[in-house]
Amino acid sequence: MGKIASIEYFRVPPRWLFVKVVDEAGNVGWGEASLEGHTQAVEGCLDAWTERYVGFEADDIEHIWQMSWRTSFYRGGPVLMSALAGIDIALWDLKARKLGVPIHQLLGGKVRDKLKVYAWIGGDRPSDVREQAQVRKSQGFNSVKMNGTEDLGWLDSPSALNDCVERLKTVKDLGMDAGIDFHGRVHKPMAKQLAKALEPHHPLFIEEPLLSEHIGGIKALAQLTSCPIALGERLHSRWDVRPFLEAGCVDILQPDISHIGGISEMKRIAGMCEAYDVALAPHCPLGPIALAACVQVNATSANFAIQEMSLGIHYNVGGQDLTSYTKNPEVWNVSDGYIDLMKGPGLGIEVDEDQVSELSKNAKAWVAPGFIGPGGEIREW
């Protein structure tokens, strides 16, 4: 046992927030509390929880999780759960490193030795994707994901959907699979049409076909299409996930480990999904700590399907990428669509604290972009 001596956070480019927990014996764990576009809010929550949790037993991970959830009166939501995720992941890393084992050993042990992965192509305004898909193929990926559309009006011209179908066909012609991310930017009148148009070309899944607050619309859409429906990045706890499972309107759940309270809650949600025959495919366009945490849970989950990787994603600008901030970036090497399960202790990555400290100096908080339509109206991004 050892009490928490300090909790620090580091804002680092391109848009990540790392958390470091140290106990009184000098044992260290790293977590990731990245919440894209809301960094300062998460930092404020971490400031409050640092004052609260210094002096708690670092081994009592579940107690700290429950304290964060049940004693704050207001609970859940992206900010609180992202802050909790940073601390939770770091505590798991610290504990497993202290014991000299990978985190997955503390979660019951692995059920696989390697994990299927996919990478992004295109950007917020996708255009020709053939060249990018070929690059991904040369990197060892067999599957990719891309945005379905640019910004769309509530009711737009059906012709605005044609490019998406052609891009899917292009990737399929290269012998690859592609998930299509509607990104919550497509409203019901257009989403119905796009799902039907994509269906004959067999996308790997369609992601966030509607915003998650429209569960009735998602349920109706699920009954109209055979395309597997994926969502979950904007659900922040098992209680948020539950109605979607009960409604039978999601086929692939995509919880984000940095938005749902970390490893502890991801493991619980994975078990819930298994009971409903729903696949697990964690959302993770984030940094190496978040991805390593996903991998540790995926390794123990029978219903794990595929993992998102941020390698070369369009958000990673300025020279920092998934391979930054660690001393063993080779763990992210892809072969025939898979990465190997890391064998090292804790998260299985070795954080380069010197690089984290240096690049955190004067780091700017990432600001989420937005779309404005031709009439000056705000559109979903």
From TrEMBL:
<dbReference type="GO" id="GO:0046872">
    <property type="term" value="F:metal ion binding"/>
</dbReference>
<dbReference type="InterPro" id="IPR023592">
    <property type="entry name" value="Galactonate_deHydtase"/>
</dbReference>
<dbReference type="Pfam" id="PF13378">
    <property type="entry name" value="MR_MLE_C"/>
</dbReference>
<dbReference type="InterPro" id="IPR013341">
    <property type="entry name" value="Mandelate_racemase_N_dom"/>
</dbReference>
<keyword id="KW-0460">Magnesium</keyword>
<keyword id="KW-0456">Lyase</keyword>
<keyword id="KW-0479">Metal-binding</keyword>
<dbReference type="GO" id="GO:0008869">
    <property type="term" value="F:galactonate dehydratase activity"/>
</dbReference>
<dbReference type="GO" id="GO:0034194">
    <property type="term" value="P:D-galactonate catabolic process"/>
</dbReference>
<dbReference type="GO" id="GO:0009063">
    <property type="term" value="P:amino acid catabolic process"/>
</dbReference>
<dbReference type="InterPro" id="IPR029017">
    <property type="entry name" value="Enolase-like_N"/>
</dbReference>
<dbReference type="InterPro" id="IPR018110">
    <property type="entry name" value="Mandel_Rmase/mucon_lact_enz_CS"/>
</dbReference>
<protein>
    <submittedName>
        <fullName>Mandelate racemase/muconate lactonizing protein-like protein</fullName>
    </submittedName>
</protein>
<dbReference type="InterPro" id="IPR013342">
    <property type="entry name" value="Mandelate_racemase_C"/>
</dbReference>
<dbReference type="InterPro" id="IPR034593">
    <property type="entry name" value="DgoD-like"/>
</dbReference>
<dbReference type="Pfam" id="PF02746">
    <property type="entry name" value="MR_MLE_N"/>
</dbReference>
<feature type="domain" description="Mandelate racemase/muconate lactonizing enzyme C-terminal">
    <location>
        <begin position="126"/>
        <end position="228"/>
    </location>
</feature>
<dbReference type="InterPro" id="IPR036849">
    <property type="entry name" value="Enolase-like_C_sf"/>
</dbReference>
<dbReference type="InterPro" id="IPR029065">
    <property type="entry name" value="Enolase_C-like"/>
</dbReference>
